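Q: I'm building a small set of examples for a reading group on sequence design. Run inverse folding on the following structure and report the sequence directly after it, with nothing in between.
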């Protein structure tokens, strides 16, 4: 190796070290949905074992996208598509938000009813109005400002399928509390349902056709980041690009959190310890923040 080549190599190593040093902290959004809390916790714990500082901000979907646009948030693991197409589209179009990875496939997200209502004939969006009295004129949504709620509210306007209904904007927990109250006595309720989620194991549910123009059919969840993040934080971006989650993984962890009251970070770590091979592909080509073997560091840091 010539003196010039050696100097060039040292310069490259130094530059890589500086890039890593400049990206020692990553900020995520968690919109308060248990599935996103689950995947964000898993990602956080792996990154912390790699030596990164991780900050998780609890904000709504619209605030998430605006904050990524402004650079205040780096990464969001919960871009449900096509349901969020309208909300994220302008940012994707102007390039301030970029898609890094499809991290989950086979999702569902639309109005749902208990099977006993389906058996009575409530089998589509078009049937909801026929059951207005039994439903108390209410459709239960999630957090205020959510784009899914917004779509349902638009259908309550004059001439809409749900004219005369009220969309109750609450939270995932508040919505499911209402389902839990009426379900034992086969009461009327229609609400925003999705999978992955333990609601699909706790209740016998049916998803209503008719909202495909907005919610689509089976969907995907994407990891998105602020413009320039992958260039500034290539090691973290590599891990995020490698990541794949599964419905089974998320349903199991979410069940521990929602049904058994396990703290999210604990439920996630317990699952990782029981399934250590699941995170191995995430760490292919990934190092610690200071350039050491990533997989070895994570196994040591998480006690695998």
């Amino acid at each position: 190796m010539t003196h010039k080549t050696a100097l060039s190599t040292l310069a490259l190593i130094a530059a890589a070290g500086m890039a890593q040093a400049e990206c020692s902290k990553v900020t995520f959004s968690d919109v308060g949905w248990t599935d996103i809390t689950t995947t964000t916790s898993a990602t956080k714990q792996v990154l912390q074992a790699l030596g990164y500082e991780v900050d998780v901000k609890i904000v709504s979907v619209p605030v998430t996208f605006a904050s990524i646009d402004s650079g205040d948030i780096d990464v969001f693991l919960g871009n449900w598509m096509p349901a969020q197409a309208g909300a994220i589209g302008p940012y994707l179009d102007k390039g301030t938000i970029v898609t890094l990875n499809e991290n989950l496939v086979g999702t569902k997200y639309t109005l749902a009813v208990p099977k006993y209502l389906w058996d009575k004939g409530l089998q589509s969006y078009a049937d909801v109005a026929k059951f207005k009295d039994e439903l108390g004129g209410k459709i239960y949504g999630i957090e205020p400002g959510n784009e899914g709620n917004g779509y349902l509210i638009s259908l309550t306007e004059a001439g809409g399928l749900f004219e005369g209904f009220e969309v109750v904007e609450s939270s995932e927990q508040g919505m499911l509390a209402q389902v839990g109250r009426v379900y034992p006595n086969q009461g009327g309720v229609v609400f925003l349902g999705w999978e992955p989620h333990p609601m699909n194991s706790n209740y016998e549910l049916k998803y209503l056709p008719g909202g495909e123009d907005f919610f689509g059919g089976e969907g995907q969840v994407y990891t998105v980041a602020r413009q320039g993040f992958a260039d500034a934080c290539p090691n973290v971006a590599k891990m995020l690009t490698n990541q794949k989650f599964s419905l089974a993984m998320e349903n199991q962890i979410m069940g521990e959190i929602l049904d058994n009251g396990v703290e999210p970070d604990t439920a996630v770590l317990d699952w990782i310890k029981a399934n250590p091979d699941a995170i191995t592909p995430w760490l292919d080509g990934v190092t610690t923040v200071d350039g050491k073997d990533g997989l070895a560091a994570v196994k040591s840091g998480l006690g695998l």
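The radius of gyration is 22 Å.
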